[in-house]
Protein: Histidine ammonia-lyase
Organism: Streptantibioticus silvisoli
Amino acid sequence: MHSVVLGASGTSAEDVLAVARGAARVELSEQALAGIAASRAVIDALAAESRPVYGVSTGFGALATVHIGPELRAQLQRSIVRSHAAGMGGRVEREVVRALMFLRLKTLASGHTGVRPVVAEAMAALLNAGITPVVHEFGSLGCSGDLAPLSHCALALMGEGDAEGPDGVVRPAGELLAEHGITPVELREKEGLALLNGTDGMLGMLLMACADLAALFTAADITAALSLEALLGTDRVLAPELHAIRPHPGQAASADNMRRVLAGSGLTGHHQDEAPRVQDAYSIRCAPQVAGAGRDTLSHATLVAERELAAAVDNPVVLADGRVESNGNFHGAPVGYVLDFLAIAAADLGSIAERRTDRLLDKNRSHGLPPFLADDPGVDSGLMIAQYTQAALVSENKRHAVPASADSIPSSAMQEDHVSMGWSAARKLRLAVDNLTRILAIELVAATRAIELREQSSTVLHAAPASRAVVEAARAAGVRGPGRDRFLSPDLAAAETFVRSGGLVAAAESVTGELA
């Protein structure tokens, strides 16, 4: 089984995905354990002093002026976890909770938080046992950390609250820990605070969204190429020299993907039963510009994610020279902004895909295709309502594109008077990514059906080899082709699975080689 070793230097996005979505085991290096112990010694020394230190001998947030004596400090740490585990709403997905826990463990391993090694070891044990604390949808403002989500995870470390076992059954966390031989942690000075103060939830969701969108941008280039071909559009607009004079790297990559998918096509730009078109519609001609802008947005978001992944987010932090300093590094603005930016890119990519689908179904703009790609228009409605579904998804993604990070709201008696709402930005981005997958799946259904109708209507018109590979793979995956009206939802579900699983990209790449 693959193992991820955490050292003081941090981890990679690939490691986060391996733990969150896979069964990778987590190990703490000797270097990490030594660094954790060294920072703990600093906290122990401060705890013995009389001067107040936030989170060690004081209350939290607006209660930071309240002095806490030595006899109450263990209770203080338990209390912050219990009181902050105040989430509500539906359960957060297992992969998000595992990413959140792993990223918090990564910060503990940095040697800047002041926890004891036993705390980090217990969190690693929880991950390795497949125990996933129940975390609720609402409770984080994306500042002072993803407080409620992280608190529910810390609660499980204490043997309290509920968690999902490796069998998927939710049970009391204490029972699950006992079954796996994990001793509940009795928190000491600063440890409860250190388990809560981080951007881990929003960062985990950002890393997963970046991975998913990278695949979807490639899928979108393929469906755009299929639509261009089905509409008898010209591929001359994909020429490299045209994109070189507007040097956005994402645009060039998308144009190259489309050009390679369309190589060898007998449909593009040469067989029109009407006066030749000088230019195709924007949704066809500008596909590389829109998808490319999204790719460049993704590149920026990935850079921000990598920087955050290299960070140790806690307050206060233990510095290398032994100082313990309060700070504002838990503020989620950098992550929240790019989460919102990606939601905008996802919404626009879905919007242009829907415009291509609508063009394929409109007999006045499809250049000879039957209305709604129906077998017997009038008797049959074809893909009419599939486009309705796609339009509904596009409209919802436009709502998800409204930025959460611009909607700060004060909390904690105005001590925490500006927050990032990064968790909310991440939650809506996950919905937007899911919707984009379905939008592209519907374009795939329409474009492949249109290509087959073109080929059936002529003995000389033929699709590109890569397009033909996609059509054949889609049909093998349960996405049925032209014919009389039938129960359509299963076809759309099969197309969604085909796109989500990577089958669409794999089919095209079987001819083109690896696409960007």
User: Anything to note?
Assistant: The mean pLDDT is 94.
